[in-house]
Each structure stands twice: as structure tokens, then as C-alpha cells.
Amino acid sequence: MKLKQQISSVINNALLKSNIEVDNPIVINEATKVEFGDYQYNGVMGLAKKLRKNPREIAQEVVSNINLDGIISKVEVAGPGFINITLSDDILSNEISNILNNDRLGISKIDNPSTIVVDYSGPNMAKEMHVGHLRSTIIGDALVKLFRFLGNDVIAQNHIGDWGTQFGMLIAYLEDIGVEKSDRLKDLEEFYKNAKKRFDEDDSFKDRAREYVVKIQQGDKHCLELWKNFIDVSLAHCEDVYSLLNVSLTKDNVKPESFYNDDLANVISDLDKSGMLEVSNGAKCIFLDNSEIPVIVQKGDGGYLYATTDLSALRYRNRTLKANRVVYVVDARQSQHFKDIFNIAKKSGFVDSDVLLEHIAFGTMMNRDGKPFKTRDGGTIKLVDLLNESISKAKNAIKERDKYSDKELEEVSKVVGIGAVKYADLSINRESNYIFNLDKMISFEGNTSLYLQYAYARIESILRKSDKDIKIEKILIDDDITHRLVLMVLKFEDILNRASKDSTPHIISAYLYELAGLFMKFYEQNQILDNDSRLAISKITSETIKLGLDILGIKVLDRI
Ligand code: ARG
Q1: Does a structural domain hold residue 492?
Q2: pLDDT of 217-232, one tens digit each?
Q3: Coil/strand/helix, residue 356
Q4: Which of the listed residues 120, 128, 159 should we mutate to test ligand 1's pocket, taking the one with most ligand atoms within 8 A of CB?
Q5: Which of 52, 372, 482, 544 has the smallest count of CB within 10 Å of its CB?
Q6: Within a 10 A sphere around the Cβ of 155, how many other Cβ atoms?
Q7: Is 193 among the domain residues?
């Protein structure tokens, strides 16, 4: 049984013995400070109000009835009526011994797995990925790995922007310059920039570009071929970036906007049947909750919008993919859009009422001046450039530390440089903006990936040195720091479940950082080599760090 459950049942027995009836389930919290013990029960305060008694007196009564020969070694009343609980070394020792050599570190799959669709990355085609795509891609991928590890059926969806006027512009522009097609994304980007300029300045170009859009829509063979080529070139580039980033998205996860095209007319007619549509200034609109600003689903000229496609996608995800939870990892600036389409999808019955629809919003990445990231001339910064800069900084930081062959150095800098960028993002509350500062990200100190990768490598080197199979029935806990370290290891399951419920990878990072810190203390204070218990604890700690980083999509190294 899980630790918290075991503590609840001890408290429950003590309440029964004290003749106090509780109607709510007993909730055990983590102690907020080491001095408070390991866990805390705060339920007495509520009870005291109901019973019109002094909470400290009730707490005292409960404490006097707690059985101390089992899992709890010490209880104390604190403050206005908190009960501070310290677990016995014996119970920790049993629990930790049970997870030695367990490949899931004793972490169960959840009882009621869901089918979760995670919509993330979603770059727009015909452009290189830029820094604006980074957050969605790494946060989304961490969530996919987390949900999956906990036993859910996870379907990753890359809702790429592969449809729209820009492709008409491109075709018209290529025609003008007499180029058939190009296999280089860099060219396409250049073409697109010029095409956009022409589009804004020249009305006849604009008309031609629009005609091409219609032609693509009507399935004109030549135009479709050109369009498909643009997408292939762009996607190949995205795949390179995903692989560099150690992100699991592949072609199989791509469900582009164009996939929903054939369904858009149905979306409109079904919305109409549900009585939600109104025509305003020629456009088909939905006015939600008496809002004055409508959600437009079809323009006066017949064109569909971003929202129309998303409504079709929502219906597909519920009806066809059978999702019970759909998670959109998209910039906070799209909050209103998601609020609206979730609302419409539920009201129109496109999505069943019990399906969880969540916008997992995130803030903006800023430069060191606290401004949104831009190149000196105001352009967007290419993701690949940013990642390469991080890799080269990582190389400088590590090359002095160990003797690496050239090949090793390449490999190690990649793991460190990419890890640093991902971890910095995943270690802050996703809703905050943050400042991108490579010097801070690639540091052996502080809450960084390098600190954790180093802690891992350090433990691995100890285990290599001891060079023996750890054969042990029961892991002993013989001092305070060992007690704290083991308790921390055992809390991992709770952390993962919380991170999964709230879609907050940063609590996993915070946990790993604390865990590594405790290990470092344990290591300073104890002789580890030749002590099987301590070696076993070290092994489980390093496995926990590895698993945690793995879920965050960050690689470890055996030596740094
Ligand atoms: N392509 C969109 C953008 O760059 C992101 C797509 C997000 N997913 C969605 N289903 N709307 O803003």
C-alpha cells in the first residue's frame, strides 16, 4: 500500500479510538519543512469547528491514540492543531527494499487509464521552425511521455498549418521567377518572404495567388503537386529538428489542417442544425453567452477559418480517436480561441459532455532584455540556430573536464546542450514568461539539467567503482539524511501523478533537483562504497533521476 494511504489508515484508527467521527476522507499532506517531520495531517481544525472544541486539544487526543509501533515513529501537535508525523525507518526500509531492481521503481500504472490526445508542436509549413515553436514542442512531448508512463493510451497529434493563402502566393511567385520547385526549405522561405511582399503591394499578384488557392482546393493536379512538395520539404526539416531535440513526433503523428477540409462543410451544416449559427455581415457566426464578438466559422466569401478546422478536429478526436481527454499545448495568446471552440464543441454535441478539453497554455520566451525573442533586424530566430548555439556553449563548458575523443565530445555536447534548453523550459511554471539565458542554463550549479546529469554520472561512477552485484534483502536506514533521501525517492509516484493531473512538468524538475541535492548530502556524510544498503539507495536514486529526465525527454550520460 502507498505510504500516504498507510498513514491515513493509522490516523483513522486513532480518530475512531478517540470517538471522533469524520465524514471526509483523510488527507495527508507533505510536511512543508524538515522540522515538521515527514507528513502533516491538518484535518483536525475543521473537525474542531464542527465539534466546537479547541483544535489543539482534539489533536492531542488523536496523537495519544496513535499506534507508534508500526509505520509511524513520532507524532507531535504543532501550531493551531496540526499533527506532524515522522515515519519509522523500518517502514521506509521495507518500501525502498521492495523497489530495488524493479524496472518501474514500484510506480503503478493508474487504475483508470484514459485515451489522451495531445495536440502539440503544430508548426506552420513553408517556414523554418523558429523559437516560437520550441515551448509547445518540448512541453507537449514531456506530457506525452508522462501520460504514457502512467499507463494511459496516448495519441500525439501534430496539427501542422499546411493550408491557406500562403501556398497560393508561393505558386504564383514561383511562376513569376520561372522556378518549378525547390527541395530546400531555405529557398522556400526566401520565396515566401518575397511573395508576401508582392502580395501586399500588387493587386494583380494578389488575385493570381487567390486563384491558385482555389485551384489547390479544387484539386488541380499540378497545383496540388507543387503544394505537396512544399509540405514535404517543410516536414523533412521539422523531422530533423524533432530528432535533434529528442522529441518523439514522427510523420505518423501529423494530422494536418488539410486533413479536415472535406469535413468543414458538414461542420457548418451541423452547427446550423443545432441552431447555433447566425449570419452577421454575410459571415456565419456563433455568438457565445451573449458575447458581442462572435466566433466566425465561415466568411462571407465561403472561406473557412482556423476555428472551423479546430471544431472538425475536436469532433474527430472524440468520435474517431475516442479520446476522453484532449490536451492542447499552445501559446497562452490563443486562450480565447480554445475557450470558444471548447464551448461550441460541447454545446453542439460535437464532443461528449464528459470529455476533458484542456488548453495547456504557456508564456513567452524572452531575451535578456525581457523582450520577445528577435534577431537584430527584427526577424524571428531560427530554432536550429538557437539549438546549435547551445550545443557549442555546452562543448566549451565540458571539454576541459574529461578526456573526450572528438566523437564523444560531439555526442556529449549535444546531450548537454539540448538538455539545457529543454530543462530550462520544463523547470519553470509553464504559464510564466521566461528569459532565455544560455549561460545560466548550461551551468553545473543551480536547478539545471547539467546539475542533474552530473549527479547521475557521479552516482554511476560510484556504482562502477564498487563493481559488485548488490545483494541485499533489506536496505538499512541508519541516519537522518538517509531517512530523508529514501522518503524523497518514495514520493516520486505522487509527483508524477500530480504533474499528470495538472499537466505541470516543472514539478518533476523541482523534485529531481531536490532529490539530487539530498543525494549529494548523503554522499558527503556517508561512506558508500562497501556498504550494500547505501549502494542500493544510490542505485535507486540514479534510476529515479534517469527515469525523471527520461520523462522530460532529457538524456543522461554515464560520465561527464
Ligand atoms: N499552427 C498553429 C500556430 O502556429 C498551432 C496549432 C495548434 N493546434 C490547434 N489544434 N489549433 O499557432
Answers
A1: no
A2: 888 999 999 999 999 9
A3: strand
A4: 159
A5: 52
A6: 18
A7: yes
